[in-house]
Design brief:
This protein is an alpha+beta fold. It is about 60% helix and about 15% strand. About 20% of the residues are buried.
Length: about 90
């Protein structure tokens, strides 16, 4: 499950947690970390590749939000594992 591997990084995990509260621009995300904006951009690219977040243009800004399909697939897998344990 690629999503779990991607979320093993604490910065990416925190980005997903932040986006769970609502969409944010890449600049707003970057301002909440003590690492460079290009480093945040690479984390966002990795999250997009894992289909955990998606991006849309809004003027000059890039707005990131959770990707319901990718998050749903991860949740489905976790629920499947839970159901096997309960059996």
């Amino acid at each position: 499950m690629q999503g779990l591997t991607v979320l093993a990084d604490p910065t990416r995990k925190r980005i997903v947690e932040m986006l769970a509260t609502g969409a944010m621009s890449s600049g707003d995300i970057a301002r909440r970390f003590d690492i460079s904006p290009p480093a945040i951009s690479q984390h966002l690219k990795t999250l997009r590749g894992a289909k955990l977040v998606r991006v849309r243009a809004q003027g000059q800004k890039r707005i990131y939000e959770l990707d319901p399909d990718g998050i749903g697939a991860l949740a489905d897998w976790i629920n499947q594992i839970r159901s096997l344990r309960a059996s």
